[in-house]
Amino acid sequence: MAGATNKLSDATLRKMIGRESPSDNFYADGDGLSIKVMKSGVMTWHFAYRLGGREAKPQRLKLGNYPDMSLKLAREKRDQCRAWLAEGKDPKHQLNLTTAETLKPVTVEDALKYWINEYAADHRANVERHKAQLEKHVYPYIGNLPLSQCETRHWLECFDRMKKETPVAAGYVFQMCKQALKFCRVRRYAISNVLDDLTIPDVGSKQDKGDRVHTDDEIGQIWQASQQLKFKPYYAAMLRLLVVFGCRSQEARLSTWSEWDLKRWVWTVPKEHSKGGTKIVRPVPEAMKPFIEDLHRQNKASGLLLGEVKESSAVSAWGRLVWKRLGHAESWSLHDIRRTFATKLNDLGIAPHVVEQLLGHIMPGVMAVYNLSQYMPEKLEALNMWCERLELLAGEHENVILLQVKK
């Protein structure tokens, strides 16, 4: 009964404060909770329990001093200890854990950096971009908050702040944070479910998949411009790589000379630089060998294909303006070059699985498990055909320009 369990009262305890006695005495409150009144007058709450049944040696766990820990709080601690015992957990160990978490809790920044270090660093090619976005949009506002106390509204304030100017980026950062919290939860590093019920439309916008494919005249002009002095050397070289290989900009941007076998003429993108997390093996077509050799002479000392690593944001910003520089009527992005590459190769009669491998896509179904062929001869034939087509389209574009000038 409640009366038999909660034997002590605040009035009784207040009378004991500062009272000296010839010996230490325990006064039971019930269900394992008691208060020890020492000769000096100090009063300490204790919880008595056994691990392993009545035959086990009894243990006493110090909970705190009275009156710093009130009778009400001491009873709550007792109930928590009894709950731990029911789950087969040692109250002493659990109390130490919760005390440590209370005194030095895992913050939002701690949790996100844990995901960065333990997962993203090894599985995300654009991990530096992740870090930059978190440092700009999350850490300054909620980074110091204990994760367990950071509510949905606190996160939404960060995403809403981003959404006003960059709704797609807000959705991107939200997805990243949601994955990070799940990773921490699965690894039992820290627990938070506050983002579980949110989706991208709640915080920002999804990136448009797009359907822009360049016309023959446009891709011919892009190819021609990449070989002239219309752009700075870094961007001109990147543009040529994107057009010929259909690669992602990050694959070219992060490429090192260790990826290039100039004897076998093979470019192997490591899984660390691949969005899909698998290596991508591409042969170098004949028409590109002199260009790659020139890059090697110029940038060998740096160890980098393009001589330096520019931030992804800088490359994206440049890519968004190329269409204007070339006088195209309709806007396009660097990723549209990749879509054009895939479409034009299929138009040339290249087998779809060869195109998919050149793009670095994971093969579907059982093919990803059992078919490990790289189709190198087929890839080389496809890229040689594509380079010939590019030269033809560039020539046709140049002829159109000459005709216009004559008129």
Describe the structure.
With 407 residues, the protein is an alpha+beta fold. 53% of the residues lie in helices and 9% in strands. It is built from 20 helices and 7 strands. The chain has helices spanning 2-5, 10-16, 71-86, 91-103, 108-123, 127-137, 139-142, 152-163, 167-186, 200-203, 216-226, 233-245, 249-253, 289-299, 312-319, 322-325, 334-347, 352-359, 367-370, 376-406; strands at 25-30, 33-37, 43-49, 59-66, 260-261, 266-269, 280-283. The strands form 2 sheets. A 4-stranded antiparallel beta sheet has the order 1-2-3-4, with helices on one face. Strands 5-6-7 form a 3-stranded antiparallel beta sheet. A hairpin with a 2-residue loop joins strand 1 and strand 2 (33-37). Mean pLDDT is 87; it is low at 400-407.
What descriptors fit this protein?
alpha+beta, 3-stranded antiparallel beta sheet, 7 strands, 53% helix, elongated
Write a concise synopsis of the structure shown.
The protein is of the alpha+beta class. The protein has 20 helices and seven strands. The C terminus is likely disordered.
